[in-house]
Automatic annotation (TrEMBL):
Biological function: Involved in heme d1 biosynthesis. Catalyzes the decarboxylation of siroheme into didecarboxysiroheme.
Pfam families reported for this sequence: AsnC_trans_reg2, NirdL-like_HTH
GO molecular function, one term: lyase activity
Name of this protein: siroheme decarboxylase
Domain Siroheme decarboxylase AsnC-like ligand binding: 66-133
Family: Belongs to the Ahb/Nir family.
Pathways involved: Porphyrin-containing compound metabolism
All copies of domain Siroheme decarboxylase NirL-like HTH, residue ranges: 8-50
Keywords from the named record: Lyase
Subunit composition and interactions: Probably forms a complex composed of NirD, NirL, NirG and NirH. All proteins are required for the total conversion of siroheme to didecarboxysiroheme.
Catalytic activity: siroheme + 2 H(+) = 12,18-didecarboxysiroheme + 2 CO2
Enzyme Commission number(s): 4.1.1.111
C-alpha cells in the first residue's frame, strides 16, 4: 500500500525517538511542519488501514519487568481460536502464525517472571496445549525500525 508523504515522514522520523512530553503530537507536528490534527489524522488512517498497530514506547524489559517468547503447536483448525485467547492478555505484545510445528508465536511482557508463568499456566489449562517458553538470555540487537524514505 502506498503511503502519503506525511505518513512516510512521520514513520521515518518518529518510529524512534517519539517526544516524551505532555503534548507529543503537537511536537511531532511542529517537527514535520504540519498541524497536530494532520498528525492525528494520519496516525488514525495508518491504524485503520492496518499499517500501524500501535503508538507507544518500547521498554527495556530487563529494567521494567520480565519478558519471554512463547509458542504453541496448535492444530490448524484451532489456530484462530487459540490466537484470540492469547490476545486477551494485555501482556501480549506480538502474536504471529508461523509455518512450523510450533505455529503460534507470541511475546509476553509483565512485571515479574512469576506473573508470566501464571499466564502461561492459564493458557495451558484453557487450551490444553503446552507452551514452549523461551526467555531471552542476551539481547544482541533490538532496534526495530524501517526507513521508508531513500537516504543519500
Amino acid at each position: 500500500m502506498t503511503q502519503s508523504p506525511l505518513a512516510r515522514r512521520l514513520i521515518d522520523r518518529f518510529q524512534h525517538g517519539m517526544p516524551v512530553c505532555a503534548e507529543p503530537y503537537r511536537v511531532m507536528a511542529q517537527t514535520l511542519g504540519c498541524s497536530e490534527a494532520q498528525v492525528l489524522e494520519c496516525l488514525q488512517h495508518l491504524q485503520l488501514a492496518g499499517t500501524l498497530s500501535r503508538v507507544g514506547p518500547v521498554f527495556e524489559h530487563t529494567r521494567a519487568g520480565a519478558s519471554t517468547l512463547a509458542a504453541f503447536a496448535v492444530p490448524q483448525e484451532r489456530l484462530q481460536q487459540v490466537a484470540e485467547r492469547v490476545n486477551q492478555y494485555p501482556e501480549v505484545n506480538h502474536n504471529y502464525a508461523r509455518e512450523h510445528r510450533y505455529n503460534l508465536w507470541f511475546v509476553l511482557t509483565g512485571p515479574t517472571r512469576a506473573h508470566l508463568d501464571s499466564i502461561l499456566q492459564e493458557l495451558e489449562q484453557d487450551t490444553g496445549l503446552t507452551p514452549l517458553d523461551l526467555p531471552m538470555l542476551t539481547a544482541y540487537r533490538i532496534d526495530l525500525g524501517f526507513a521508508l524514505e531513500a537516504t543519500p
